[in-house]
Write a structure and sequence with these properties.
The structure holds two protein chains of two kinds. By secondary structure, chain A is an alpha+beta fold. Helix content of chain A is 42%, strand content 19%. In chain A, α1 packs across α2, α2 packs parallel to α5 and α3 packs antiparallel against α5. The two termini of chain A are 25 Å apart. In chain B, β9 and β10 form a beta hairpin. The chains are: A alpha+beta, B alpha/beta.
Chain lengths: 160, 407
């Protein structure tokens, strides 16, 4: 069966032993992304200096696909400019919709393992949660600006 | 009891069950036997005309087919035919109770009592009524195994209570509530009792007179019938007092420029052209279940539930929600696996060709009360086999290793 390919070593490794799942005290941006239908819930934190994402992390709960996808996204985007990160987000969403080319998918590195999720509509929103939250941060930077002690504005990012 | 050999015979009636998969999502919707599919086809090929309004033979045949289905549904729950309103599903039936009965009978300061384990379809309509009328919505709390006590209901009841709404069987926990005693308690305060029968009517004999519920809702598609046909039962005296829910054709007696008088019940609640073909399908579904016998199907479902729960007990890190006694589950086995999100459980089981449900099962407040984000649910029908259960158990026993855990 096709979907067996999701739960390969790369994905389970990112889920069980994530690199980026921790708090980020000096984050410039923090935004919560929620899938109301299944309860996936992450808070994405980014540190951005001179337009470059210099550090990032996430916390939260959810299925392996949502958690591993966010972890792989941060692997890819830390060290990139905001524009490059948003371009990768477009490619990732294009991959899920089946419109990205093989060359583009190669740029996604490990995140490319989620390519086949496009065959499972019910799981698509899990895979895109982190990426949509990233887009949402840069869409309204003022709203997503980290304000220590003030809590985090939740954003529903279940749309595709 | 139905044995494995008889099950094989039964399964030949269900075209979809010839596939190589274990269908264990029966509480979401069942599969349909050929007799039901044929009954729908037969309506369109030999009775099709607009029922209720025709003055010619074909339309009379359509009307007879529809009214026969109503009589069959009435017999199934021991009601009178004119106490059966056809709707799309249990959700629409519960909305009918809320919009028609409750909006006319609940006032500011009144109270509505709803079980915390209710499906959203038996919760959101009451939230709507409470907000619209300035009434108070009180939640009846269950224990960690989903058990409700009469004492806790009595503690909430008051002279302001107008409605008590509770499912006979919870779609997550599977436990049967003591509806008869709860309805009596509601009546002692002159409140009406609304019963969601979506998960009970398909699995056990339900007698509205014996239970003495005022309203009962159930869906056809959870009991072998087509999607899009459901039943709203109401005591006739209540139905006669209630205003219509939807206005339009076929629900009137007489219309003038100024207004209208309403048709007799149940037609007052069936505005517009009715879903006669699927009603015929529901009639055929009930006849199919009656031919096997609800006692037999219940016994078979109990046997398979027992087998499933025994298998699950042997697997570490698996936790069953609700009672540890299989006979208290009515085919519904909701569970969690440590470290594996329910959506991942369902996706991996799908790769083993096991169909289960995962999420909050339209019962978010219950999950919050239990302190769980979401759960996985396997639900059994009498047509499931012991091989289906084995396939489920085998898949479940490998889940954690496939997610990268040592055991």
């Amino acid at each position: 069966m096709q979907n067996n390919t999701f739960y390969n070593e790369i994905l389970t490794q990112h889920n069980m032993d994530p690199y980026h799942k921790h708090e980020l005290d000096d984050a410039d941006f923090s935004l919560e992304g929620v899938n109301p239908s299944c309860g996936d819930d992450i808070i994405l934190n980014l540190k951005v200096e001179n337009g470059v994402i210099t550090n990032g992390s996430y916390t939260g709960d959810g299925c392996a696909i949502s958690q591993a996808s966010a972890d792989m996204m941060l692997d890819l985007c830390i060290g990139k400019t905001k524009e490059e990160a948003l371009r990768l987000a477009d490619i990732f969403l294009g991959m899920i919709k089946g419109t990205a080319t093989d060359e583009e998918i190669e740029e996604l590195e490990e995140a490319g393992v989620l390519k086949d999720i496009s065959h499972m509509p019910a799981r698509v929103k899990c895979a895109v949660l982190g990426w949509h939250t990233l887009q949402e941060i840069f869409r309204d930077e003022q709203a997503a600006a980290a304000k220590p002690g003030e809590g985090i504005r939740p954003a529903n990012v279940c749309h595709m | 009891m139905i044995d494995e050999r008889q099950t094989e015979e039964i399964r030949r009636d269900f075209p979809l069950l010839s596939g190589d998969f274990a269908y264990l999502d029966n509480s979401a919707t069942t599969q349909r036997p050929m007799s039901v599919i044929k009954a729908v086809e037969n309506f369109y090929t030999s009775c099709n005309a607009n029922p209720m309004r025709g003055l010619y033979d074909l339309s009379i045949r359509a009307t007879d087919s529809y009214e026969n289905a109503r009589s069959t549904a009435a017999r199934f729950i021991n009601a009178a035919p004119d106490e059966i309103v056809f709707t799309r599903n249990a959700t629409e039936s519960l909305n009918l109770a809320a919009y028609s009965y409750a909006m006319a009978n609940v006032s500011a300061g009144d109270e509505i009592i709803v079980g915390i384990s209710e499906h959203h379809s038996n919760m959101l309509p009451w939230q709507m009524v409470a907000k619209a009328k300035g009434a108070r919505l009180l939640y009846l709390e269950c224990d960690s195994e989903g058990r409700y006590t009469l004492e806790s209901l009595e503690a909430l009841l008051s002279d302001r209570t107008k409605i008590v709404a509770l499912a006979q069987v919870s779609n997550v926990i599977g436990r049967e509530n003591e509806i008869k005693a709860f309805a009596r308690a509601a009546h002692s305060r002159n409140a009406v009792f609304v019963c969601d029968g979506a998960q009970s009517v398909p699995h056990m004999p339900v007698d509205v007179k014996a239970l003495d519920v005022d309203f009962l809702a159930f869906s056809g598609h959870k009991m072998l019938a087509p999607m899009g046909i459901g039943v709203f039962y109401g005591k006739k005296a209540l139905l006669e007092e209630m205003p219509p829910f939807l206005y339009g054709g076929e629900m009137i007696e007489y219309v003038t420029r100024e207004g209208a008088t309403w048709a007799e019940v149940p037609h007052k609640f069936e505005a517009g052209t009715v879903n006669a073909a699927d009603a015929a399908g529901l009639g055929a579904a009930i006849e199919y279940i009656e031919a096997i016998g609800l006692d037999n199907t219940a016994e078979r479902e109990d046997h398979l539930t027992r087998l499933m729960m025994e298998g699950m007990k042997g697997i570490p890190h698996v936790h069953i929600i609700g009672s540890s006694d299989p006979s208290e589950h009515h085919g519904i086995v909701t569970f969690t696996v440590d470290g594996v999100h329910p959506h991942d459980i369902a996706t991996i089981m799908d790769s083993d060709r096991v169909c289960i449900r995962a999420g909050h099962h339209c019962a978010q407040p219950l999950h919050k009360a239990l302190g769980i984000m979401s759960t996985a649910r396997a639900s059994i029908s009498f047509y499931n086999t012991e091989a289906d259960i084995s396939r489920f158990i085998n898949s479940l026993s490998t889940l954690r290793r496939r997610m990268g855990y040592a055991e």
